[in-house]
Amino acid sequence: MKLKNFILIPILFILASCYQNNEKEEVVFLSADDLISQIDQYNNKNIETEGLAVHICGVKKKKLKLKTDQKQIIKVVYKDSCKTFDKNLAYKFVKVIGRAKESRISTALIDSMEKEGRLLCHIDHTPCMDSAWVEGKIKAGIADSMARKDIAKLRKVMLDTGKDYVSLVTIYADTISVLP
Questions:
Q1: Nearest alpha-carbon partner for 92 in 51, 31, 61
Q2: Cα(101)–Cα(125) distance, rounded to whole angstroms?
C-alpha cells in the first residue's frame, strides 16, 4: 500500500502542475494616446493599439518606436525576446497586440545619466548602445550638447507632469501587423 502511495502522489502532483488555465485574458482596444494617459489602469493588461512605427533600433533590431497621434512615444518589444523587427515596418502604421507595462525613470537615474554625460536612446531613454552612432556624434563635437538636451527633455517632462519620475510605456508584443 505504501508503494502505491509513493508512486501515486508524485504522479498526481505532476498532473496538477501541468494543468493550465485556458481562459484567455480579454484584449482591450484603445488609442495609443489613451494607453499613455491611462497607463495606471492598463499596466500589465493585454491591449491592442495602433500607431506609426517611426524607428527600429539599429543595434539589435529588438526595439520599435511607436509614435502616437499626439506625438508621444511607446516602446515596443516582442514578448519573445529572440524575435527582431523587420526594418520594413519603419514608417508604417501598425497594429500592436500585447501586454502594456509601465516603467519609471527616477530623478536619481536622470541625475546619474546627466553626470555620465551619455547619449540616450530616443526610444527608452537608456544609454544608447549604438556605438557607431555615438562615435559619430562625439567626432562631430555635438555629443555633449545632445546629452544635455536629452536630460533637459526628461526634466521638462517631470516638471510638466508634476511627478518625480518619467513614465515609459512599453508593449510586450504578441503580434505586430501593418495596417492597410
A1: 51
A2: 16
Which cell goes with 156? Answer: 521638462
CB count in 10 Å sphere of residue 81: 9
Task: Round to whole Å and give the CA distance between 36 and 112.
Answer: 25
pLDDT, mean of each 10-residue run, the chain (180 residues)? 55 51 77 96 97 91 94 95 92 97 95 92 89 92 94 95 95 95
What 8-state DSSP symbol labels residue 149?
H
Q: What is the pTM of this model?
A: 0.81
| C-alpha torsion 104→30→90→126, nearest 10 | 0
Provide DSSP, 21-54.
--PPPPPEE--HHHHHHTHHHHTTEEEEEEEEEE
Q: How far apart are CA 163 and CA 107, in angstroms?
A: 9
Please count the other Cβ atoms lying within 10 Å of the Cβ belonging to residue 125: 22
Give the integer Cα–Cα distance in Å for 9 and 60: 47
Report the first-to-last Cα separation within the chain, whole angstroms.
66
- Kindly tell me the burial class for residue 77, based on how many C-beta atoms sit within 10 Å of its own C-beta (0-12, 13-18, 19 or more): buried
According to the model, what pLDDT value does residue 32 have?
97
